[in-house]
Write a structure and sequence with these properties.
Structural class: alpha+beta
Mean pLDDT: 82
Order of helices and strands: HHHHHHHEEEEHHEEHEH
Number of helices: 11
Helix content: 40-55%
Strand content: 15-25%
Distance between the termini: 66 Å
Length: 348
C-alpha cells in the first residue's frame, strides 16, 4: 500500500482523478438542487441509483491520495451506477438533447429543464471519462511501456466525446420538439428547398383544409448548416378576388384526388446533401390517409406539374403576416430535414 500511495499521492494521476471525481459529483449535485428536477415521486431503487454515485465519488476523491487503488475501484462502481441510472431515464421518457430544440427557452420552466439537460450531458461525459481513467490506472504501469501519458490522458477524453456524439445522433435524429405529441397539420403541404453549399432556402405552401376552404399559407426560412437557430415567417394569402380562391382549391383538389400522386412511389424524403441541389416534397393528409412524396435533383426526379402549379399560384398571391419565430436544431442543422419542415412522417 505504501508504494502505491507514494506513486499517486500529489502526483498528476491522483490530482486528475480527484478533479474528475469532484467534477462528476458536482454535476450530479447540480441536477439535485435544480427545482425542475425531482425524485420524490419515483421508486426507491430509482432514488438509490441517483444518490449512491454522489457520496461514492466524493469518497473516491478523498481516498485517491491515501488508498488510490480503492479510490479507483470506488470511482468505477459509482460511475457505472450513475451511467446506468442516466441511461435508464433516457430510455424512459427523458431526452436530454431535444430539450435544446425548444422554441421558447425564455420560459422559466423550459429554461430550467435545459439547465438540467445540460448538467446531465456534462455529468455523462465526465462519468465516462472518470470510469475509463480509473480503469486505466488499475492496470500495471509496465503494461503501457512508456505510453501511459498518451493513453491515460487522451483516451478518457476521446471516449467521453465519442459517447456524446453517438448519444446526440441517436437522441436528436430524427428532428423533433420536446413535449410535442400531436398537432393538427394541413391537408396539403408542398415544400420547396434550394441548397447552395451550406445554405438552404425553404418555402412551404400549405392548405389547412381542402374541403372547408380555410385559407392558404406560405412559410419561408433561410438557414445554413452549423447554425443552431434560424428564423421563419408565416404569411397567409390575402387575396380578395373569389376567383383566386376558386383557382387555389381547384388546383388543391386536383392534387388531393389525383390517383397518380397517391399511387406514385418515390424514394424517401431525405435532406439534400449535394453542394448544389433542389428538392420538392409533397405531404398529403386527406381524411385520415397520408403520404409523402420526394422529387429532388439528387434522385433525378421532377414533381408533377400539378404540384408546381399550385405552389407557384399560391406564392404569387398577396399575403399578410401571421407569425414569425425561430427554429432550433441541437445538431446544428444536420438533423432538421424535410419531415421536420413538413410535419409528421406520413409514410410512402
Amino acid at each position: 500500500m505504501g508504494t502505491d500511495s507514494k506513486q499517486h499521492r500529489w502526483h498528476p494521476p491522483g490530482l486528475i482523478a480527484a478533479a474528475l471525481f469532484l467534477a462528476g459529483a458536482t454535476s450530479i449535485a447540480g441536477m439535485l438542487v435544480n427545482r425542475n428536477f425531482t425524485l420524490w415521486d419515483t421508486p426507491l431503487l430509482f432514488k438509490i441509483g441517483f444518490f449512491f454515485p454522489l457520496p461514492g465519488l466524493l469518497v473516491a476523491s478523498a481516498l485517491v491520495f491515501a488508498r488510490p487503488r480503492l479510490a479507483f475501484i470506488t470511482g468505477i462502481i459509482s460511475g457505472a451506477v450513475a451511467l446506468a441510472w442516466m441511461g435508464w431515464t433516457e430510455r424512459n421518457g427523458w431526452n436530454s438533447w431535444i430539450i435544446f430544440n425548444a422554441t421558447d427557452l425564455s420560459d422559466p420552466d423550459m429554461r430550467g429543464l435545459s439547465i438540467v439537460a445540460g448538467l446531465r450531458i456534462v455529468a455523462t461525459m465526465l462519468t465516462v471519462m472518470l470510469v475509463v481513467y480509473s480503469a486505466l490506472q488499475l492496470f500495471p504501469r509496465e503494461w503501457w511501456s512508456g505510453k501511459s501519458i498518451l493513453w491515460t490522458r487522451l483516451l478518457p477524453a476521446a471516449t467521453g466525446l465519442l459517447v456524446l456524439a453517438i448519444w446526440l445522433v441517436q437522441s436528436a435524429s430524427p428532428y423533433r420538439l420536446p413535449g410535442v405529441i400531436d398537432w393538427n397539420y394541413p391537408d396539403i403541404r408542398i415544400l420547396h428547398v434550394v441548397k447552395r453549399g451550406l445554405f438552404y432556402s425553404e418555402v412551404c405552401a400549405a392548405i389547412p383544409d381542402v374541403d372547408l376552404w380555410k385559407g392558404a399559407y406560405i412559410t419561408r426560412s433561410e438557414r445554413r448548416l452549423f447554425q443552431y437557430q434560424f428564423g421563419f415567417e408565416e404569411r397567409a394569402v390575402a387575396a380578395d378576388d373569389p376567383s383566386v380562391w376558386q383557382r387555389i382549391y381547384q388546383l388543391a383538389n386536383t392534387i388531393a384526388q389525383s390517383p397518380g400522386i397517391w399511387k406514385l412511389r418515390t424514394p424517401p424524403a431525405k435532406p439534400l446533401r449535394s453542394w448544389k441541389a433542389e428538392g420538392w416534397y409533397v405531404a398529403l393528409l386527406i381524411r385520415g390517409h397520408g403520404v409523402t412524396r420526394a422529387f429532388t435533383t439528387e434522385y433525378h426526379t421532377k414533381p408533377p406539374h400539378e404540384v408546381t402549379d399550385l405552389f407557384s399560384f399560391i406564392e404569387d398571391q398577396p399575403t399578410r403576416p401571421v407569425m414569425s419565430g425561430v427554429i432550433r436544431d441541437v445538431c446544428l442543422g444536420f438533423c432538421y430535414d424535410p419531415h421536420a419542415a413538413l410535419g409528421p412522417y406520413l409514410g410512402h
